[in-house]
């Protein structure tokens, strides 16, 4: 019998920063153009959080039934670890997607942007087909691209647009920074599982690049907000305070660059997520105060 703690671990709380950071950044970008709205920000947060939980359960289910998680070095999975029935994990994923859908429809109608419902449907489809379906794109090295697009560009700019009715260059810079670090979280997770994924036929970006190049790409993604911060600072000098995120990011880079393997890479997920959220919060406050 699975416990509440098993289900919580299956939802992978260490990845939730990937949902919180883009909404914070997008709300700050909206405030910078005079359009922040607390109610719509809350709905956007529900959408993003439900999507990240849904995709985590969906990955657990799909990888589990394929046998991809049979030789896993990371945290135990509900399906692959035999902690829950596969159909129950699948139901949990679709329940989360349903929550995201309801909140997304409400947000789209409140913002008078009905076409955002179509974007939301695309996000849910992207979450499921990452590892689900007959030809999951996550098994073709496109997972990080999808994370960058959905939890970076779409999440940040969508949050800004549904509050302010427009997007800005500042919003785009924040979207690129958040999306890059979010993709970095996904990449380091796949670096950890290169050997087992390769054996299972899961050709992730890390598998395609190889260990050394994948680690170099992670470093580039983790350091990208430095240049973006300096650019944002032209409009708001306080944005430079966002560089404090390096305290966490550099620690993550040292672990990955130092050649850590297996379970030794697990802390990097949380470090990178917290660094991303810290950067998003500081930059959001900085641009909102312009």
Automatic annotation (TrEMBL):
One of its GO terms (cellular component) is plasma membrane. Pfam families: UbiA. Its EC number is 2.5.1.74. Pathway: Quinol/quinone metabolism; menaquinone biosynthesis; menaquinol from 1,4-dihydroxy-2-naphthoate: step 1/2. One of its GO terms (molecular function) is 1,4-dihydroxy-2-naphthoate polyprenyltransferase activity. It is a multi-pass membrane protein. It is found in: Cell membrane; Membrane. Its main location: membrane. NCBIfam families: menA, PRK06080.1-3. PANTHER family: 1,4-DIHYDROXY-2-NAPHTHOATE OCTAPRENYLTRANSFERASE (PTHR13929), UBIA PRENYLTRANSFERASE DOMAIN-CONTAINING PROTEIN 1 (PTHR13929:SF0). This is 1,4-dihydroxy-2-naphthoate octaprenyltransferase. The gene is menA.
């Amino acid at each position: 019998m699975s416990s509440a703690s098993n289900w919580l671990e299956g939802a992978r709380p260490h990845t939730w920063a990937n949902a919180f950071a883009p909404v914070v950044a997008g709300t700050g970008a909206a405030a910078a153009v005079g359009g922040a709205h607390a109610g719509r920000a809350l709905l956007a947060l529900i959408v993003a959080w439900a999507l990240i939980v849904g995709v985590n359960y969906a990955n657990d289910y799909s990888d589990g039934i394929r046998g991809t998680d049979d030789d896993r070095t990371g945290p135990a999975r509900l399906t692959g670890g035999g902690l829950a029935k596969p159909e129950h994990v699948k139901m949990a994923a679709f329940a989360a997607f349903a929550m995201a859908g309801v909140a997304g429809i409400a947000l789209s109608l409140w913002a008078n942007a009905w076409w955002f419902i179509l974007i939301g449907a695309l996000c849910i489809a992207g979450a499921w087909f990452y590892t689900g379906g007959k030809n999951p794109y996550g098994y073709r090295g496109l997972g990080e691209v999808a994370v960058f697009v959905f939890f970076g560009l779409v999440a940040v700019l969508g949050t800004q647009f549904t509050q302010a009715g427009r997007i800005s260059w500042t919003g785009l810079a924040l979207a690129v920074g958040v999306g890059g670090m979010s993709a970095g979280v996904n990449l380091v997770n796949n670096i950890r599982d290169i050997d087992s994924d390769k054996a299972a036929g899961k050709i992730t970006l890390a598998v395609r690049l190889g260990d050394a190049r994948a680690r170099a790409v992670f470093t580039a993604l983790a350091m990208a907000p430095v240049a973006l911060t300096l650019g944002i600072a032209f409009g708001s000098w306080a944005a430079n305070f966002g560089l404090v995120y390096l305290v966490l990011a550099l620690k993550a880079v040292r672990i990955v660059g130092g050649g850590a393997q297996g379970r030794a890479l697990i802390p990097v997920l949380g470090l990178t997520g917290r660094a991303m959220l810290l950067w998003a919060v500081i930059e959001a406050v900085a641009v909102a105060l312009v």
